[in-house]
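Annotators were shown the component list below and the corresponding predicted structure, then asked to write short factual statements about the assembly.
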Amino acid sequence: MRYAVIGTGAIGGFYGAKLQRSGLEVHFLLHKDYAHVQRHGLKIYSKDGDFHLYPVHAHADPATIPVCDVVLIALKTTQNYRLKDLLPPWVADQGILLTLQNGLGVEPQLARLVHPGRVVLGGLCFICSHRGAAGEIHHQDYGSLTIGAYGDGYQPQGVTPLLETMASHWRQADVQTFLAPDLGYARWKKLLWNVPFNGLSVVLSATTTEMVADPHIHALARELMEEVRQAAASQGVAIPTADLEQMLRSTATMAPYVTSMKRDYDRKMPLELDAILGYPLAVAHGKGVALPRMTMLHQLLQHLDRHNRLPGEEAPEKVSA
Amino acid sequence: MRYAVIGTGAIGGFYGAKLQRSGLEVHFLLHKDYAHVQRHGLKIYSKDGDFHLYPVHAHADPATIPVCDVVLIALKTTQNYRLKDLLPPWVADQGILLTLQNGLGVEPQLARLVHPGRVVLGGLCFICSHRGAAGEIHHQDYGSLTIGAYGDGYQPQGVTPLLETMASHWRQADVQTFLAPDLGYARWKKLLWNVPFNGLSVVLSATTTEMVADPHIHALARELMEEVRQAAASQGVAIPTADLEQMLRSTATMAPYVTSMKRDYDRKMPLELDAILGYPLAVAHGKGVALPRMTMLHQLLQHLDRHNRLPGEEAPEKVSA
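Structure shown to annotators:
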């Protein structure tokens, strides 16, 4: 069994390293850290135990990656406009695509890049991890994976034998793995958390703990979650109100966490706004559902994002201000 | 004609100085800068010409202020909980109260502090000014004053002979003065600008020019204005949509401006949230009108305000986070 990892960051590096450690052959596509990782391998600092992955099949060019059974897409979604150039050429016909990316709308993007009928899976990572120095990944907390099969418009596909096979690889790699018969439900449910907490962490410069401890922000997070629930309902996905309350409670008890969007912001990287807010808002608006708070959060974040980026990281449609 | 100025900052200092320069007797209540102003007077750096006011009737204690015909209230509204101690004792029976404060709901606060039937006027300052070093006030732009009479629940009082007299003082002091037959309308119309631009300037760390140049924030500002319009309508105050469009256009052409709320934030002072957002939201909620964007802006600003204040500037109800 061979895996390719497109994007060797906090997610791709961590999960790819676990797969290789379990005995699978894994090929990593790298950019900035290619030479370093080629020479020194990957160092994983994990709450489950540190380990050093060496040697590593490192690639600077997708064309050198041999044909693999599974291709993990672990780029930031803001880089998806480059996907066509970052996927190995054989992907259109061979290999299962499994995206580990955030938000909603990444699977249909992938499906459009490959021949019709090719298998596209979505993976949701419930993990607190971030990059350190070159070739170093820090895994703070959690680490489970939920996998579901993508069907046009997020039609539920049930649990297929392929999903069961995938799960067995991951479990052998010591990754707690769940199978989602309805990938759309899983994606919307994750947005329930990502929309308020990723979004507000940037606007307020706050950790999860600071946000839920403030009654005003606790109330706002709940109201944003309610709007995510309405957006999901507009797509035929029913999220029980109890899920929302449970998520608020568990956020209040987790260790203070700087969200991934806040980390991107602090590093002056583009924010994953399309996947977390833009696409969900667009599909809900398509059904005539108005979501004032989510829209306002999106408006605020687009402004903050544009004014935050480093030169050269600007989107082509940047508006001068 | 004698005036007292309670709060000698960017507003009270500027307008009080103009009144004294025109020949009226003006008594200034000061706190931090008392000794400096007592000794050196006030220096006004104005786009209409600088001037030095000396000598000045400076007071550190409201009890030393002689009975005046008019008492100008020019404190930040965040200090209004101290008003009872900052007003001269004769105010309950003598003198006309004229508040130059921001937002909505300050006149009923004043009315409750004095004997029933005492005259309370509201003044709206359209001015860009700020404090500099001790005893120094910088007046950048605009400078007009709109005065209206307060009646219970902002019932329109029309233009009274008293208002005409007041206007004649101000005009002699070279202040462009307008009379508002409906103070509530004037207050709500000013909120149309203050809610989006004061509020968003803090959340986004942006000038007016940066905000209106961003199409997302321009859209959000219009949506917030629309909610202010709905809130006003719930109080029987009709604001034409044309006012809103005109205000957006004039903001786009004014010089880049750091709003007063952003200046307070940068100086780590408490923000005028009750007058600009809390009270307007409360009266609209009282009529069953939901205002999701204004509410969200209020929630965000309450969090930012609490985490921004200097030690000792915290409100007693501070929530630890």
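Statements collected:
1. Chain B has twelve helices and ten strands.
2. The CA atoms of residues 103 and 191 of chain B lie 6 Å apart.
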